[in-house]
Specification:
Blueprint lengths: L10 E4 L5 H12 L8 H14 L3 E3 L2 E7 L7 E15 L4 E13 L10 H4 L5 H7 L4
Parallel strand pairs: 1-4, 3-5
Antiparallel strand pairs: 2-3, 4-5
Helix pairs in contact: 1-2
């Protein structure tokens, strides 16, 4: 089901090609109001740390980027869709994937039930659901 415009999950659509550095800067600036200490460097560090622990590529041109940190006061979800795929190297599987959909989960370690991102996670079961998730009504 497409997101409602009134949803508290922001969706950023990029029409120009994106680099890793640009993506990390975009995530930091978009989430700055919720996570004031967030910088592009910190985003990269948190994503890299999580990628060493497990696969982030979920298929269908999508990755889930986890930002798990004490600096995250409340769990937040951000969706980024790019018109141009980015070559994403899976550090866990040592494979390159062409990715144009990014689910960013900024997770507070104190959020035990995950209620704020459960609806998004439930939509990541198959390609049709993922594509619908990245649309806005």
């Amino acid at each position: 089901m497409p997101l409602k415009k009134s949803s508290n999950v922001p969706l950023v659509n990029l029409t120009t090609p994106v680099s890793h550095a640009h993506l990390f800067q975009l995530i930091a600036s978009t989430l700055k109001s919720v996570i004031p200490e967030l910088t592009a460097t910190l985003v990269q560090q948190l994503v890299t740390r999580r990628e060493r622990e497990g696969e982030t590529y979920i298929g269908y041109g999508a990755v889930i980027l986890h930002l798990i940190s004490e600096r995250v006061p409340q769990t937040t979800v951000l969706l980024v869709k790019s018109q141009t795929p980015l070559d994403w190297t899976s550090r866990y599987a040592n494979q390159i994937h062409h990715v144009n959909k990014f689910v960013i989960l900024a997770i507070s370690p104190h959020d035990l039930d995950g209620a704020s991102f459960r609806p998004v996670m439930e939509e990541l079961a198959d390609e049709a659901s993922i594509n619908q998730l990245f649309e806005m009504e």
